[in-house]
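Feature request disguised as a bug report, sorry. It would help if multi-protein outputs had a clear separator. Right now it looks like this:
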Amino acid sequence: MNRNAIDEKILELIKRNEAISNPELSRILGIQEEEVTERIRNFSDTRSKILIVDDEMDTLLPLKISLQVEDYIVIGALNGCEAIDKAKIEIPDLILLDIMMPEMDGYEVCSRLKKDARTKNIPIIMLTAKDAVRDKVKGLDIGADDYVTKPFNLNELKARIKTVLRRSKNLLS
């Protein structure tokens, strides 16, 4: 059962019996009680979740801290394979994606995410040192929603994040 299906099942069981306990939910669903508790806690967390994908810790950690201060839930991934796995599990509201990574570059990650039904609607901002027009066009053509070059201005990036999230939420409503 995928993450969304489990969450939907929890909600369905709670609607049928508001007094159902977490141990009972755990037993019915065959998952750990701690996972049930965490999922229920996440239902009420309305903060936007951002996945940052960058193989450079010098970029990932400061950006992660800066966005957490802005009250975002931030998840990090150090390579493309990890990014795809985390995107499918966490279903973030936005992905900040570096292009130049070992093994699988950001273009391939973006392409794979946009082809997967579970992740195709997650907005992606490419965040990279590649600043040639052809690189920007390629990123946008494969499905990125925006493209920001490094070094970036943190305030501009935060504004772009807010804009993409707002646009994304408007599409969902």
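(second protein starts here, but nothing in the output says so)
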Amino acid sequence: MPSIAHTPYPINIAIGESRGRDLYELTVKSLQNDLIIAEACGTVGIVVHFGHFKGSDALQGYKNIIQCLNETLSGWQGSAKILLENQAGTPGSMGITLDELVNIRRLSDYPEKIGFCLDTCHAYASGVWDPRTTDVLVERGRELGYWTDLAAVHLNDSKYPLGSGKDRHERIGQGYIGEEAFQVLLSYPEFQGKALVLETDAGEDGTHRGDIAKVKGWPIV
């Protein structure tokens, strides 16, 4: 069974040294430690949120991300990768588009050590994925080469409508996205063989058995 890990939620690779060198170095060491653990467990990689930058110069946030990734990966020789995850902000927010993710990877010193994790709730909340035009998202990913480096999918429904910018996950088929939209998305060959991970509330029995069975029952999974 393929598996992925997730870095601690306080990690923000976009802040750079704006809050001091000590915090920046701690961030790099934390990411390196996560990679070591992931490698020992035979994990595909560690999911890392794109990050947020509150300064006036938005470009600096992107520079900080590249610097942090470069320092983290400079001595890394394992097979586990950093998997950049798209964010759930409103249009124009940082880290929501496939273009940003692909360009950060391309501009880094170690693109071969970086992959992607697509969060479906985030893509829906940000407006990047409109289930009525899934082919637009898929085609854009093909143009950019995004799908080639997709390693995993956070398979989450959404508690809020399209473009809400709210990162609130719902159980599969019980949110605004719905089962049909997921089946259409996963029917594309780019999603075959990828690790699918639920980040949603458990069922009444305290497990995800019901949702896992539901997904496995889809003819395209």
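Even a blank line would do. Unrelated, but nice: DSSP finds seven helices and eight strands in the chain.
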